[in-house]
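Hey team,

Filing this mostly as a record. A colleague (T.K.) asked me to run one chain through the structure pipeline before their review meeting, and I want the input and output archived in the tracker in case anyone asks later how it was produced. No errors, nothing strange. Just documentation.

Input sequence:
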Amino acid sequence: MMTPGTLPATTRNDNMATATTGEIVFRKSVPQSMHGKFLGWLEEALAWMRDKHPATDFDGVRHYVFNRGGYRSRYYRKGRRGLEGPVVMIAWTECMSLYVMRSLGITTQKRLAVPGRVRVVSALIHELTHHHQHEQGLPRGEVLTTANELEWLQVAAPTLHQKFLSE
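Output structure:
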């Protein structure tokens, strides 16, 4: 289990922690007081993904990088900025949007203000779904990633789930 107490001293201008799920990097933009929450949110997302996709080895993700805004969340299969891949980079912002997917009931683009937990866990589920697609040889794309986000939102934040599906 990852705990805030496992965070070592600052290295490369980042705070880093090592866990069975890979190296965790907190950029300076993420207040240290939030590190424990991010670790809990990562555990929540990994538990959900492992339950949903038990055949996928999510421990294969080598690095998780958390940043306060500045860029969107991404999955890098081959690595990024000196970090060996796969790398999941999560942008912590106050707003969230989902891809327009008429087949999933999302007919208009919305950018909604959401709690930090919802934004971060949803982004982790989205990016970890890209990892699942690669590991299982599935078609790449945003349909499964968005479907997983919606499924999680339906249970974790039903009001937001409905707002994303409404006209």
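Quick notes for T.K.: Confidence is low (pLDDT under 50) at residues 1-20. Residues 4-165 form one domain.
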